[in-house]
Design brief:
Blueprint lengths: L1 E14 L2 E14 L14 H9 L6 E10 L2 E2 L5 H7 L15
Length: about 100
Amino acid sequence: MTVLQVEDLSVEFRTRGGIVRALDRIGFAVGAGETMALVGESGSGKSVTAYALLGLLDDAGKITGGRAVLEGVDLAAASPGQLARIRGKRAAMIFQTRARP
């Protein structure tokens, strides 16, 4: 059973220099009982993906396409209250830390 389905998700940021497309039609699915890790180079969109799914994009950021459905709730269209109830209970982001020598 799929718990999270992300389809064609796109995110843009308004900057002084114009519009920057941070995500361009990404997609993935996570099944019940699965754990997923986003891995990639710095600047590849890992954090933007998590922020978009959790409704934590900065004011300059906007989901411009696609959808992300978590257990029947479209995260891109969810109200701030719905997202607050989901964060930390049904979905969370684990931040990367640097290993200390």
